[in-house]
Amino acid sequence: MRKNTTLLMTAGLLALAAPAALAQSGSSAPAQSATPNDADLKSRRLPAVTVRSLDGKPVSTAALPGVGQGKPVIISFWATWCKPCIAELTNIHELFPDLQKDTGAQLIAISIDDARNAAKVGPLARGRGWEYPVYLDQNQDLKRALNVNNVPHTFLLNGAGEIVWQHNAYNEGDEAHLVELVRKVAKGEKISQ
């Protein structure tokens, strides 16, 4: 009898925990369910991970341009094989000089290309005329630490380096919404997911 009670209690606990575990893993829950709510985002800081510059030098995420320096930072995860990623970064690039001038914001592109494709990252970025910093996350340490499942995946950090917004996927025109959010964050306004 005692063994049956213990088994029933264990099964009950597993049943209660399963939806939360699925939502965290994103395996069968919709993307919105896997996204932390505003309260969770506000307390989330950029994890301490090392990425590499295009010339192969290790760079701590704490040392990325603008992080925790009082201005908004956009971090966009992308890959050379991802057409929506390239479209997003190209469209943001067109709007970014004015945005940076007005708000002091930084834009950082983090490539998740593996060692086989890493050599393509620099030429692609230079060929597109991207003037913002591009880093490599070949081992995908930062990608895993931020629970990025698909690219493009864009994060917005406030001046304190806290993640205040994130978005997965890209549709033409999404960059205008991002620019609006950056302007609000730069003014110290609260934004919602």
Structure description:
The protein has 193 residues and is α/β, with parallel strands linked by helices. The protein is built from seven helices and seven strands; from the N terminus they run H-H-H-E-E-E-H-E-H-E-H-E-E-H. The chain has a seven-stranded mixed beta sheet with strand order 2-1-5-4-3-6-7. Strand 6 (153-157) and strand 7 (163-168) form a beta hairpin. The radius of gyration is 19 Å and the shape is globular. The N and C termini lie far apart (49 Å). 29% of the residues are buried.
Q: What integer value in Å does the Rg equal?
A: 19 Å
Shape: globular
> Count of DSSP helices?
7
Sheet with most strands: strand arrangement: 2-1-5-4-3-6-7
From N to C, what is the helix and strand string?
Answer: HHHEEEHEHEHEEH
Cα-to-Cα separation, first versus last residue: 49 Å
- Measured by DSSP, the beta-strand proportion falls in 15-25%
Uncertain regions: pLDDT < 50 for 5+ in a row?
2-42
- Biggest β-sheet description: 7 strands, mixed
Please state the average pLDDT score: 83
* Structural class determined from secondary elements: alpha/beta
Q: Helicity range of the residues?
A: 40-55%
Which keywords apply here?
globular, 193 residues, seven-stranded mixed sheet, single chain, alpha/beta, disordered N terminus, 7 helices
Give a summary of the structure in a few sentences:
The protein has a seven-stranded mixed sheet with strand order 2-1-5-4-3-6-7. It is α/β, with parallel strands linked by helices and 193 residues long.
